[in-house]
Every structure is written in structure tokens, then in C-alpha cells.
Structure prediction request, 206 residues.
Amino acid sequence: MSKIIFDSGISLDGFFAGDNRSPKNSMGGVSGKIHGWMFNQKAFWEYLGIEEGNEDSADGKLIRETIGRTGAFIMGKRMFEEGEVSWPNDLYKANVYVLTHEKREPWVQEGSTTFYFINDGIESALEKAIQSAKGKDVRIQGGANTIQQFLNAGLVDEFLIHIAPVFLGSGIRLFDGINKDKYALKIEEVIPSNFITHIRYKLIKK
Prediction:
């Protein structure tokens, strides 16, 4: 049975992305600060089909596990627009459901990635993603507002946070506007690293 998950990096002061996001300034220019831990890992580059990376550590094992359990993705229009201009073909290797008001035909890429543009809300996107995932998990990819919508709707089962040892000072916070009474949180796993701290949470609806 599919779980609804998200897997996100944040700064130590809680920011998911920086200021002034745009297709020319993806994540507000802070991707390297928040996600730099991945770039040394062979598992990250394997996913892109590139022979690169200097390490194959517990961080890489975690990347492979997350990739292996994900059967479909959901993302917001803003994240899609930032990535569309630069993502390589078949990056996601699964169906991706984009929340948007824009009417658009599916974007079928070479390989196994197809982007579907959903105009009738998060529940509709989730229903389609679960069918597509075929028993694997549905990952809410982002951005922060999309993750917040799913959290506040009580639809998330589990999440994994990667806390980078950096202060950003400003930007977009991952957990702004969250209904604090929706869930009880349980720490399932803490994975230390020289570069990042990984914490897996289980969410139990109250």
C-alpha cells in the first residue's frame, strides 16, 4: 500500500529555499548550501546516469532507498516552472503530477517520465498518483507550499528531513502555516553524517 511521503532538505534555521526564486534562480540560489551533501554521493549521479561522485556512504544508501520506494511524484507549478528549463530528460523516471491552473496536455518525455497537469486540487492529484505508483510510495516533491497543503489536509504518512549545517537568515520556510494540532510526530530514525543530519518522522493523525 502506498505511503504519502516527502523528503526535503532545509537549513538549520528552517528554510526550504532562498529569496527571489525564478526559473533563472532556482531555489533562490541556495541549492548547493542545502543539498550539497548529495553531490559527493555516487548514488545521486547514478540516478542521473552520470559516473561521478567521490563517496558511497550511508548518505548514498539513503538516496537509493528513497528512489527505490517512490512510484510517483506530486509538485507545485512554481517548482515545475523553475525546473522545466534545466532538468535533464527523464529526471524523475516516473509519472509526475503538477498542481496548476494552467490547461496543458501531458508532457511525455523519452524514458519513463510523464508530467500531468492537474487543475482540480490536491486530492485529485493524489488519487491519480496512487494509481500510478502501483503500490510504491507517492512523494510530494515540493515546493514548500505544496508540502504544506498536503500536511494541513492530513494526507502525509511520513517525511524525511535533511538538516544542513547552515543558516540562511531568510527565504521560504518549510513549515510555515502548519496546523500544529493535525498530527502527533514520532521520530522513527536519526541518521548522522559528516555533512547533514537526516531525521525520519512518522505522522499519526490525532
Q: What stands out?
A: The first helix runs from residue 31 to 39. The longest strand covers residues 183-192. The two ends are 21 Å apart (CA to CA). DSSP finds six helices and eleven strands in the chain.
